[in-house]
Amino acid sequence: MTALIASTLTGALTVVGAFPILLGTKPSERFNDTLLGFAAGVMLAASFFSLIVPALAIAGETYGEGPIPGAIAVIGILLGAIAISALDRLIPHKHFVTGHEGPDSAKIAGVWLFVFAIAIHNFPEGMAVGVAYGSGETESAFALALGIGLQNLPEGLAVAVGLLSVGYSKLKSFTVAALTGLFEPVGGLFGGIFVNISALLLPWGLVFAAGAMLFVISHEIIPETHRRGHHQRATAGLMIGLVLMLFLDVWLVA
Fold first, then answer.
1. How many CB atoms within 10 Å of residue 25?
2. Within its chain, how far is the Cα of 167 from the centroid?
3. Nearest to 155 by CA among 191, 207, 120
4. Could you tell me if 142 and 186 are in contact, meaning their C-beta atoms sit under 8 angstroms apart?
5. Where is the chain membrane-spanning (predicted)?
6. What value does the CA radius of gyration of the chain take, rounded to a whole number of Å?
7. Per-residue pLDDT tens for 67-117?
């Protein structure tokens, strides 16, 4: 239950991030890419400091020194990346927009691909929170949930701005952005149930969630922040997000 509540709250911050659209506020592309870079930095730090490192420690306590903890991390990370890659290939993103009048269909399809990419990667974020709370490490789980919640703010705004830019109304842009956050509690519930089946599954769940998030960072978020030529600001945002998440993890877990 705690995992579901925590992942629901982090997902709800997607709604908060999209809210400025209803007020008529549309950030510049440069500012938006900077925020998305920040989100990538938070996710990158969370993947390592809140998921991979604790997984290695737990596996080390269970299996002792040797190759097994490292092997679990390698296999689990790759499995997480493969799973999200499969979702990205199998879900029919472009089928959601048909018969549109106005902006060209190719541009609309691209926006919807990004919308569903955000929705898809909200699932592993929620799963990461669920697994962390399922582990019983409350301080570490809170740091992770706080970091993911913070990076959901610019993601919600990015989805809403993307839809607004190709002709959708403010209300519809906000609504779709808000709905992408619903994938997070689903992932949280799945992660919480998974790690409670057996303690032996805990390190696997942590590194699987990390692999899923790392795939999204490289495949979706960073390319999105660089495609309009704002790579310097996006990189600065990534560095700030990374060190902020590192600080939160050290401060709240210590």
1. 10
2. 26
3. 120
4. no
5. 6-23, 35-59, 71-91, 111-135, 141-164, 176-195, 201-222, 234-253
6. 18
7. 999 999 999 999 989 988 887 676 544 333 333 334 444 554 555 555 565
| Residue pLDDT, tens place only, 188-219 | 888 778 777 776 777 888 888 889 888 888 88
CA dist., res. 105 & res. 113, Å (int): 12
Cα distance between residue 61 and residue 59, in whole Å: 5
Domain ranges for the chain: 2-21+33-253
d(CA 159, CA 180): 9
Question: Considering only CA atoms, which of 226, 102, 248, 85 is closest in space to residue 169?
Answer: 102
- Pair of tokens at residue 66: 């040797």
Residue-wise burial string across 94-126, b where 16 or more C-beta atoms lie within 10 A, e elsewhere: eeeeeeeeeeeeeebbebbbbbbbbbbbbbbbb
The residues near 82 (Cβ < 8 Å, ≥ 6 apart) are 211
175-to-15, 16, 34, 66, 113 alpha-carbon distances in Å: 8, 11, 23, 50, 17
Residue pointed to by tokens 């799963």: 127
Confidence of residue 151 (pLDDT cuts 50, 70, 90): confident
242: its two tokens: 């990374």
User: CA distances (Å), 222 to each of 45, 69, 141, in order?
Assistant: 14, 29, 25
Rounded Cα distance, 221 and 236, in Å:
14
